[in-house]
Amino acid sequence: MKAVVFEGFKTFPVLKDVDRPSPGPGEVLLKVAGSGACHSDVGLFHDFPGDPTGFLTPPFTLGHEVSGWVEELGPGVTGLTKGDAYLVYGPIGCGRCKPCSRGQDTYCQDVPSVGYLATGLGRDGGMAEYMTTYARNLVPLGDADPVAAAPLADAGLTPYHAIKRAMPHLTTPGATALCIGLGGLGLVGVQIIRALTGATVYATDTKPDAVAAAEADGAIGVPTDGAAEKVRELTGGLGVNAVFDFVGAAPTLELAAACVAQQGSLTVVGLAGDDFAWNAFKLPYEVDFSSTYWGTLEDLHEVVELYRAGRISPEVHVYPLDRALEAYQQLVDGQISGRAVIAPHGT
Description:
single chain; alpha/beta; seven-stranded mixed beta sheet; 18 strands; globular
């Protein structure tokens, strides 16, 4: 079968023939419906000089935002029907520690026993015709379009988890929020805040078309030039109650700090990895400054419920598998708004 394989850091991936996998105990073979191309993948082959975790050893098939149809059950798996559509929870932990017991495999305390971080991140992922995952990691999609749903596994789950943690700052009367960076995650983040709260949402990005997309979802667009001053003006000088930085670069971190209100919340979601120089006067007093990574299995079930109810809908651009490398290059070049989804078996 064909697969997009990550063969080394600072090395563009390749589309090649690999063996079709077989499901092991507790696993399921999926016929891949859709696999999202994420900036985290770009970090692997374009940005990172080496493995920042020790658990991303190449080669492996990319793709950690995956949906698919059940094709084959591994030993010990029951209760699933061939042809049914599922979304894949990508993180895979040890299954024994406290975080894993609550479905938070992202923060597994015994990663060495697993040997990789997730589907498509150390373990073969869904940028292929078929892939395996654990039956536990499947979230049913019912009659929802699995190709369009694929980005929910990260671009939906990651902002949902961050927003859920900040809910006390978003549910008071007159609450305000700011989304910085309107790529795949940021645009869905705007939709989630709008779906779950009555907060006024401001949104900013260097791309005018991305800001326009956020405005179409009910946000108030803010140009990047003079963004902090504009946000302060819009909030009567107070700043916003909850800021979500979906980039994590030095300029966006500075913008987030300049916009957050006293006793507000600032969550860094993006993985650009730049430094933020903190001192007692850098942030307003009593700001909850935190970072998040992906989300829980329970969160993903809730994301799918929002999607099936029509409350959120990621913007997707579908490519066949033989154009996957083209999609990745466009992602590197900043030419994709929303999410590129690879559909190995068509739409």
